[in-house]
UniProtKB/TrEMBL annotation:
GO biological process terms held by the UniProt record: DNA repair; leading strand elongation
Organism: Huiozyma naganishii (strain ATCC MYA-139 / BCRC 22969 / CBS 8797 / KCTC 17520 / NBRC 10181 / NCYC 3082 / Yp74L-3) (Yeast)
Domain of life: Eukaryota
Cellular compartments annotated: Nucleus
Record family assignment: Belongs to the activator 1 small subunits family.
Full protein name: AAA+ ATPase domain-containing protein
InterPro entries, per the entry: AAA+_ATPase, ATPase_AAA_core, DNA_pol3_clamp-load_cplx_C, DNA_Rep/Repair_Clamp_Loader, P-loop_NTPase, Rep_factorC_C
Any matching Pfam family: AAA
Any single GO CC term annotated in Swiss-Prot or TrEMBL for this entry: Elg1 RFC-like complex
Signal peptide (from-to): none
Keywords: ATP-binding, DNA replication, Nucleotide-binding, Nucleus
Protein's UniProt keywords contain Nucleotide-binding: yes
Length: 334
């Protein structure tokens, strides 16, 4: 497949450590390890789309160059990773002789938090046994899902959600490559909605490009970004809130339902959006905010457990209405 036809998350995967944005400290420590030829076992953990897989692959490419395929074993969650598979594959890989280059081999265990505890326990012996000529890099979203014994064998690096300026620089870069025009507001909205997940940014950008016609002067608008993210637009959220607070129950329900249908919004995204808008409200009683947060959290939980969306949207209106009963609204943002 040509590079042009790749999904953007692959097309724009960092090819070297210097291409990894927003993880400066980690990258500089890794550079140091390479220079001193002293790579410890590594543990990368953090939220999705922050560059864990990309960073270790880039690191391996820098160390091994064209010998990559002989020197690196990548195992991910989609592979069968029972104890025996792990043991055998790693054993076979680590114990074959290195013809092409000297130095250690690298085993990348991607999505290791999906491994069973038994498999993780088997790993600790394996790690110790092959430390002489093999380094392990364990990648996970949650470090608490890894057994402590495994954690203590590795040098830990936490990948933060990408900072806004790093995402902004990366977007600018991609836009130039793709001859894509995105309005300033839309870029800002995308940065906010992505919450530091670069994979999400790239997917949304690619989807939004597909909405444009052939005219090169067309620009991606803020609305398109919200649509591609499946997120509610702030204007719609304010409209819903206003209706809940100022109109009777039936009208509020109708407004909410209509906007949800028109925009194809999930109730859970709506609740998240409403939470954010409410953050900007100045409330007279702190208790109002506390009640709201607790009750919205309950609602969110109920929906995630499969609660009926009609009942839950009624509950949403009820929650907001009752919480605001004693509250005189002041200084609402426009
Ligand atoms: N720090 C970054 N700098 C530049 N691009 C990035 C960065 N992080 C992620 N990306 C982009 O997002 C895509 C996904 O990144 P990657 O696979 O490295 O994420 P991950 O941290 O391993 O996520 P997951 O936890 O879901 O496996 C990459 O192909 C790359 O294009
Ligand atoms: Mg990954």
């Amino acid at each position: 497949m040509s590079r042009e036809s790749l999904p953007w998350v692959e097309k724009y995967r960092p090819s070297s450590l210097d291409d990894v944005y927003g993880q400066g400290e980690i990258v500089s420590v890794l550079h140091k390890f390479i220079q001193e030829n002293r790579l410890p076992h590594l543990l990368f953990y953090g939220p999705p789309g922050t560059g864990k897989t990309s960073t270790i692959v880039a690191l391996a490419r820098e160390i091994y160059g064209k010998n990559y395929s002989h020197m690196v074993l990548e195992l991910n969650a989609s592979d069968d990773r029972g104890i025996d598979v792990v043991r055998n594959q790693i054993k076979e890989f680590a114990s074959t002789r290195q013809i092409f280059s000297r130095g250690f081999k690298l085993v990348i265990l991607d999505e290791a938090d999906a491994m069973t505890n038994a498999a993780q326990n088997a790993l600790r012996r394996i790690i110790e046994k092959y430390t002489k000529n093999t380094r392990f890099c364990i990648l996970a979203n949650y470090s608490h899902k890894l057994t402590p014994a495994l954690q203590s064998r590795c040098t830990r690096f936490r990948f933060q959600p990408l900072p806004e300026d790093a995402i902004k620089r990366r977007i600018a870069n991609v836009l130039v490559h793709e001859h894509l025009r995105v309005s300033e507001d839309a870029v800002q909205a995308l940065i906010k909605l992505s919450k530091g997940d670069m994979r999400r940014v790239l997917n949304v950008l690619q989807a939004s490009k597909a909405t444009l016609g052939d005219d090169e002067s067309d620009e991606v608008s803020t609305d398109t970004i919200y649509e591609c993210c499946g997120a509610a637009r702030p204007a719609d959220l304010r409209k819903i809130l206003k209706s809940i607070l100022e109109e009777d129950w039936n009208t509020a329900y109708y407004t909410l339902h209509k906007i949800r249908q028109e925009q194809g919004l999930a109730l859970i995204d709506l609740i998240e959006g409403i939470m954010e808008i409410l953050d900007q409200y100045e409330l007279q009683h702190e208790q109002t905010r506390i009640n709201l947060c607790m009750k919205l959290a309950d609602l969110e939980y109920a929906i995630s457990k499969g609660g009926d969306s009609k009942i839950q949207s009624s509950a949403l209106i009820g929650v907001v209405k009752t919480c605001f009963e004693n509250e005189v609204l002041e200084a609402q943002p426009a």
